[in-house]
Amino acid sequence: MSKGTYYVTTPIYYPSSKLHIGHTYTTVAADAIARYKRVTGYDVMFLTGTDEHGQKIQNVAKEKGQHPKEYLDVIVDEIKKLWETMEISYDYFIRTTDEDHKRRVAEMFKILYDKGDIYKGEYEGLYCTPCESFWTDSQLKDGKCPDCGRAVQVTKEEAYFFKLSKYQDRLLELFESQPDILEPKSRINEMINNFIKPGLEDLCVSRSTFDWGIPVPLDEKHVIYVWLDALSNYITALGYPEIKDGNFAKYWPADVHLVGKEIVRFHTIIWFSILMALEIPVPKKVFGHGWILLEGGKMSKSVGNIVDPVVLINRYGVDALKYFLLREYTFGQDGLFTNEVLLNRINADLANDLGNLVSRTVSMVEKYREGIVPKSGSATAFDEDLIQVATAASQLVDRRLDNLDFSGALEEIWKVVRRTNKYIDETMPWALAKDEANASTLDTVLYNLIEGIRIISVLIQPFLFHTSRKIWTQLNISEGELTAWDTSASFGVYPVGTTVQKGEALFPRIEIKAELEALEELSRQQMAAAQGSAPKAEEKKEIAPIKPEITIDDFAKVDLRVAKVVAAKVHPSADKLLILTLKVGNEERQVVSGIAKHFSPESLIGKEVILVANLKPVKLRGELSQGMILAATSGEQLALVTADLEDGSQVS
Ligand code: MSP
């Protein structure tokens, strides 16, 4: 039975085809909390989307000679693809260009206008075009836009206004009576002292100098100005103004809006006032998280560090990147990103602490008990503490996540990981195994280790989806009763007599120095490519010359097959090469491939690639290669050709 509903949102993103890992922070956090709420029994609605109107977008599309929608469709697809790669488990993706959204925003505008909370006037203000924000004199920083630091222009136009000033007292009262509504707490003082107390001015909610927006009802030379359009996505996605039934009745008010700290003002002062004017409840919480920054600059100006999430995922896997983002940084604070912190975190927490724990334990059960998990026997002096730490963890994780303390929640889980590793050092199973008289104690140790790992695997599910599944495969259990969240508070659930089986390393250890050099080189190449090769619209694209013609019979000689990667490792004497084990129907093949620069061995497992199956075998640096796999290349970029079909299938 459902424990209730949970509605979590990210901001809707400005369309950009190059989202960096800083951008993905809000979404990764929302994904973790959504997954956590689902596994703990909630009916979750997780909303994300894109914010597609405004002058800036109209200008860019015009420069490219495209209609804004045509330009946007491509970029929005790229964003959706990124979320797919990052396995973001959103339930609904809203675009502000969706017909439903546009119609509902227009209806909302009319409700506010009819009520007198929107009126027509004339605006003269200081406008920042890139930020699409009007500012008052007192809000400027050194005479420039306080958000982006760029110059502002005096702008005058006929416009519609929302009566923000009317809600000043109610806002103050709300912040004072419900301080939990905005976190971290420090942000409340900022809102009260910097914005509310100095006095709120009515807000310009329409523009007439561009037309890429939702037309104002009955006055179509105006379009609705972006923040009113954008913020309302949180309710139009639920069907507003239909509030009696459906998703609005079910999910509103939102449990939490997750936003970056720079847009807290919009999500509290402006959004709360709009909701008050519409006479519907405000969200239960807005959380303004910190920024992930590079030393001395913005993410997009990165040199030396790789901030493209896709490159990082290809090399280290999606679990590692999500884990890193949530564990390394305190959610409410800013943090510094470098490739080195990322790699150190992966090695220390994932390869060493968790990866070694699982591989050591499963190996010992295989070595000492032929893989069969024994029933506990004689107690050791360390059992009680291990059991206590392991079974207490889920409650501590719950408490941390209720406060959106992702890093703290992962730290609680890692206390169990470290406690279990320590249990191995304390009980020394390899010493117990030497003497048959200790067999019963060894049984206890092995059982407790396996059960400790099961509990860890249950707790990591919201953050490390694939890792939990990989552990379940090694423990030979499937998703269900043995992996349910509540079972992480009980010890002794793992069924005695189950046969475990060692798998690939969960997180291969990274050679930090070599990897940092590789990343730096890659970053240099990316910068060079970005500076040199962006083709101008009128330039013809250069491609490699097409090879001489062949007949269909020539082509038919090539036997192409779908092959599944079942194992992968770096070549022992050539770090550019990977040695892949491929399953092709009933047969296994070894293929050596020069793709180490683009993929970590782990990220390839399970991929269905295309193999040239009848290529004469060769030895590459001493390793047999029985065929080659197909890849497409463009400059420094490489993509494997894949097929979502059973291995062994013919490609023709
Ligand atoms: N379109 C507005 C939001 C409208 S919501 C009604 C917007 N979009 S955005 O694309 O600029 O930002 C999306 C999210 O990414 C925001 O939460 C923003 O804070 C976050 N981040 C962008 N760069 C970031 C970092 N470097 N670090 C952490 N988060 C950052 O704002």
3D architecture notes:
The protein is an alpha/beta fold and 652 residues long. β15 and β16 (574-584) form a beta hairpin. The longest helix is centred in the middle third of the chain and has 31 residues, at 339-369. Bound molecules: 5'-O-[(L-methionyl)-sulphamoyl]adenosine (MSP).
* Overall helicity: 40-55%
Largest sheet: 6 strands, parallel
**Could you say which small molecules are bound to this protein?**
5'-O-[(L-methionyl)-sulphamoyl]adenosine
Number of separate helices: 21
Q: What is the mean predicted local confidence, pLDDT? A: 92
Nearest-angstrom radius of gyration?
Answer: 28 Å
C-alpha termini separation: 50 Å
Low-pLDDT parts are 534-540
Structural class by secondary-structure content:
alpha/beta
Total E-strand runs: 24
Cross-sheet strand order for the largest sheet: 3-2-1-11-12-7
What spatial form do the alpha-carbon principal axes imply? globular
Strand residues, percent: 15-25%
Notable traits:
alpha/beta, 6-stranded parallel β-sheet, 652 residues, 21 helices, 24 strands, 6-stranded antiparallel β-sheet
Topology:
Elements lengths: L4 E9 L7 H19 L3 E8 L4 H9 L4 H18 L6 E4 L3 H17 L2 E11 L4 E3 L17 E10 L5 H10 L4 E2 L2 H11 L6 E2 L1 E2 L15 E2 L1 H6 L1 H4 L9 H6 L4 E5 L3 H15 L7 E4 L2 E2 L15 H8 L1 H11 L6 E2 L2 H31 L13 H20 L3 H22 L1 H4 L6 H21 L5 H11 L36 H21 L19 H5 L3 E12 L2 E11 L2 E7 L7 H4 L3 E5 L5 E3 L2 E3 L2 E2 L1 E4 L2 E4 L9 E2 L1
Parallel strand pairs: 1-2, 1-11, 2-3, 7-12, 11-12, 13-14
Antiparallel strand pairs: 4-5, 4-6, 6-8, 9-10, 15-16, 15-18, 15-24, 16-17, 18-21, 19-20, 22-23
The structure holds 5'-O-[(L-methionyl)-sulphamoyl]adenosine.
